[in-house]
Structures are given as structure tokens and as C-alpha cells.
Amino acid sequence: MFITKIYSFILVISFILSVSAQKPQVADTVEQNLRKHVEYLSSDKLEGRRTGEQGATFAAGYVSNMFAQYKLKAGHRGTNGKPNFLQPFPYVAGVNLGPENLLRIVPADSANENKMEIGVNWMPLGYSQNGDIAASQVVFAGFGIVSEGLKYDDYAGLDVKDKIVLVFDGNPDAGNPHSEFGRFNIHTKASIARDKGARAILVIASESDFKSDRLAALSYDRTLGETAIPVVALMRSHGAELLGAGNEKALAEIERSIAIKKDTTPSVQFKIANPLNATARLKIDLAKRQTEAYNVIGILEGNDPLLKNEAIVIGAHYDHLGKGGQGSLAVNSNEIHHGADDNASGTSAILELARQFAKEKKNKRTIIFIAFGGEEEGLLGSKYFVNNPVWPLDKIVTMINLDMVGRLQGKLTIG
Ligand SMILES: [Zn+2]
Fold first, then answer.
1. 153 three-state secondary structure
2. Residue 375 CA, ligand 1 centroid: distance in Å
3. Does the ipTM exceed 0.85?
């Protein structure tokens, strides 16, 4: 979307460098300011600036106050027409289970029906579409993958119209992180099933301990949003029962035999009679916790009557990972992730650039300073900005993004 022009970048960098070549007290001021910003943004009070949480909102408020101090023009105009540095965008903080969730799996001999307990042996995916699905036949469709390019089709010969599809999690090339099958995530599988006419998907969990399976975590997918049809995760032992596998070991055998299919290596062939001898009825009732997150936008008009219509965006994301979890290098830690380098450093750098550009007012083109929110959750803030720009996109000639600039130590990566 943005064209990066290296010369502008070099301009900014040389500007920062030239500051340190200036009189000692000027360099001192720059260093003090940068230090002050980084210290506040990465302080315990801001609790790791997780988007949607109070700490991130404090950070946005801080940047907004600084922009006001530097007398930048507020970039956003609210519905009330009032200018504001904060550009709000919708954000799903999480999902809650509603009261109506239900899964019933009735085998041919209904006396053998298992009691399904949410959170114990089944769970709607946190990013499942809601739905109310009448009792439908269950059809087994391997991993639920169809790919012409990979010459692989789990649906070959199957009729799944108005049925519920049972699939394994993962793909036939499990364990290979570079596999071309890797792109078949749950969203893609749900779309394939929907296109085939299926009503919902039951996904057999990969972990034996159901509660520790990632699909049972009820976490929302902010990057991809909801699935195309309702999707629930099912405990492995129940998957085994549905497939007549008897136990989990036999289930793992079935999983392996399908996995081998992609190489057409002969293997034990399990005869699974589709549709399975069972019907399923399900109701998914999830309530999203909707909130707002913010980009912070400050504009410094250019001083050239013509060139000022063109803008350069100087941006950095201000959010970080809060107390860990998804995206963290220490997934199971519950400590504050302060994110001094990622990206209090970049945020502080744009604040200091804003202060100095605003003081000197020598810029011919307009400069738009943006502290983006929601970066760690999938570039949500910058996506929102591109779809809701405060300046015509074709008049934004360059975007310079500063991410993790606190530990360059003589090494600078431009990419
Ligand atoms: Zn970053």
C-alpha cells in the first residue's frame, strides 16, 4: 500500500544522527526525552500495553498528550465532528460462553450416548460462528483438506450436504513446519466444508488431555475473525468412538494412515463407513467482548504550498503483549512483558521526531505521525488506518515504520 522511499528514511535517520552531533545539551535533551518516554511506556503501570486493556489505553493517552504539547493537528474527526488524536477502531477483547451452548451426539444405539459437557469433552472454538444446527448425520472427512495443487482431497466421493463433518485437527504432514499443508488452518477447513454444503464441523482435538488443547482455550482469532460455519472441538476419546476406533491408540493409527495417503505409500487402510452411525445436534452461543482500541494520529502540515498536499507517514506501534500468552516468546509466563524495545523504543522515537519537526517547521511535505494499536494481534491498527485513512492514500508518498530501534548498536535493518 505504501511506497517506501529510502531517501526519506535516510533523511530521518540522518536527522536523528545529526542531533547527536549538535551541541551537547541538545543531544542531552534528546536522550532525556527518549529515556522519559521509554520509561513511562514500559513501566509496570502500563502492564505491557496489551491492546484492549487499560495499559494500552494509557499509552495511547500519553502519546496523544505529547502530540498536543507539540501542537500537532489532531488527525481524527469523531462522529460529533470534534478533532481528536485518537482514532478508535473496534476490537474484540475476548469471548464468553453464552447460556445456550449444546452438543448431543447420538450413536446408532442411543443407549450408548455420552453425556457431553462443555469444557470437559467438547468446546466451541472461540472464533466459531454461532449457530443452531438440527440433528444431522455425521460424515468423516479426514483432515478436512482439499487441494488441487497438492493432489489431495479428503472429500473425494463424500456427500456432506446438510451434514456435520468430523475431521482431525492439523494436516497430513504434521511435524513439518514448512509444509504446504500448513495453510489449511481451521478457518480454511471451515470454508471448504461450507462450500461442500456442510452445516458444521467437529474437530478431533490433538491433545489427549482435552483441557490443554489449544482448540479448547476459547480464544478469539483477531486476525482471521469468525469461521464460515460453526466449529467445535471434540475430545479424542469421543472422536475414537465415533470412528469405531475403540481407543485412542487406534485413533492415532487412523490419523497416521491418512497422513501417509499424501505420499500414496501403502499402509493399513481403515474402512470407515460414511456417513458414520451417529447424528449430532449442536448449538453455539458465544458472546464477543467488544471494545475499542486506538491509533494515535498527529499531523504536522508542510510549509510548501504545493508539496504540503503530499504526506509522509512516520509510524510505530505502541502496543505490546501485556502479560504474555499468544505471540509471546514465553507463552506460559504471566509476568508483565514490558516491551521496552518492542516497541516503546519506536514510539519514543516518533515522539521525539514529532517534537523536533514541530519545533523547526522546516518540512515541505506534511508529516503524519501515527502510533498504531493492535499490531501484535495482527496489524489491526494499521489495517484500520488504511481502510479509514485520514489523508488521501494516493497522496501519502512514503511510510516509515520504526519497530524495535532500541538496541541497534551500530546495526540498522532497513526492510
Ligand atoms: Zn514490534
1. strand
2. 7
3. yes
Query: Where does 205-248 show beta strands of DSSP type E?
Result: 231-234
The CA distances from residue 186 to 139, 169, 191, 200, in Å, are 17, 8, 9, 12
Cβ atoms of 37 and 352 within 8 Å: the answer is yes
Q: What is the CATH number of the domain that holds 159?
A: 3.50.30.30
Rounded to the nearest angstrom, the distance between the alpha carbon of 401 and the centre of ligand 1 is 10
Do 272 and 147 fall within a single domain?
A: yes
Residue pLDDT, tens place only, 61-74 = 999 999 999 999 99
* Residue 24, helix vs strand vs coil: helix
Supply 37's cell numbers.
Answer: 518516554
Structural domain containing residue 107: 100-284
DSSP H/E element including 56: helix 54-69
> Residue 32: which residues within 8 A CB-CB, separation 6 or more?
none
C-alpha cell at 247: 481407543
Please say if the pLDDT value at position 124 is more than 90: yes
Give residue 170 CA to ligand 1 midpoint distance, Å. Answer: 28
From 237, 262, 284, give the residue that closes a domain.
Answer: 284
Q: Which three cell numbers stand for residue 207?
A: 491433545
Cα 188 to middle of ligand 1, angstroms: 27
Counting Cα atoms < 13 Å in the Cβ hemisphere of 31 gives: 10
Residue whose C-alpha cell is 449442536: 282
Per-residue pLDDT at 368? 98
Residue 314 DSSP code: E
283-340 pLDDT, tens per residue? 999 999 999 999 999 999 999 999 999 999 999 999 999 987 666 666 666 789 999 9
How remote is the CA of residue 343 from the centroid of ligand 1, in Å? 5
The set of cell numbers assigned to 351 is: 515522539
pLDDT tens for each residue of 212-268 = 999 999 999 988 899 999 999 999 999 999 998 888 898 998 888 887 655 544 344
Kindly state whether residues 136 and 272 are assigned to the same domain: yes
Instruction: Give how far Cα 325 sits from Cα of 214, 217, 337, Å.
Output: 12, 11, 10
